[in-house]
Amino acid sequence: MIQSNQLAIETLILERSEALGLKRSDLVLRAGFKNVAKGLRRLDQLCAGELKATASLIAGLPVALELPPEVIADAVRQTAQQVAGAERIAEQEAEAAWRASFEPCAYFVGTAEKPSSICIYGISGGAERWLKIPINISKPPVTFAAQALNLVRETSSVSFWGRTTGFIVNYTPDFAVRFDINGIPVEVLDHAYRPAEVTLQIGGKEIPAESLLGLRSTSAPDYS
User: Fold this and answer.
1) 0.90 surpassed by pTM
2) Are strands 205-208 and 199-202 parallel, antiparallel or unpaired?
3) Do 207 and 106 reside in the same domain of the chain?
4) Which domain holds residue 16?
5) What is the mean pLDDT of each run of 10 residues along the chain (224 residues)?
6) Could you give the 3-state DSSP secondary structure of residue 41?
7) Is residue 1 part of a domain?
8) Roughly what angle, to the nearest 10 degrees, separates helices 8-20 and 69-101?
9) Cβ proximity of 164 and 156 under 8 Å
10) What's the angle, vertex CA 26, arms to CA 21 and CA 29, rounded to 5?
11) 130: which of 8, 157, 162, 201 is 20 to 30 A away, CA to CA?
12) Do the Cβ atoms of 131 and 158 come closer than 8 Å?
């Protein structure tokens, strides 16, 4: 049975395989795979919308499904559009959720453009542990920079990021200010600073690195 949420390429494969009486293993063999297990993995990837990793399978589909290449190409094009649309929706939903949960916060700025050891940085807590500066948001926003500066003055370097050069205060999702080491404003941002998250791929799935070992910390780190 064809489901409404299926990608175009999967729908084409299922319908044509049924018409030709092909099993999944038959399909990948006809597509040129001698290793059936590998072919089946590529088939699963293709039906999930992974087009780049499955180029060899796509190239073999006209023969396997007894269809003109342009029919396969059209299904691939539709699939790419479906995947892109789903990604846009996911990004919009993530953005809306982030805005709904936003709270003012501050972050250290170091000299490095990326953490010195990305894996260890990620599984030991990432930005939430090593970059985030605790501030009391129950106090007026005018005090946020001064609160952050108190800790910045005590922190000559930030683990994984090198010498401390300043800090950023996120006041709203659309307004942030970068300060130098002395608390002097040096740049106004039209969006909140959002440190990149470290993710790992396990079994083809991305997971936040800090969740891998359950080491994420919500307490203020020791920068001494």
Assistant:
1) no
2) antiparallel
3) yes
4) 8-98
5) 75 97 98 97 97 97 98 98 97 97 97 88 90 97 98 95 97 98 97 82 54 42 35
6) helix
7) no
8) 140
9) yes
10) 150
11) 201
12) yes
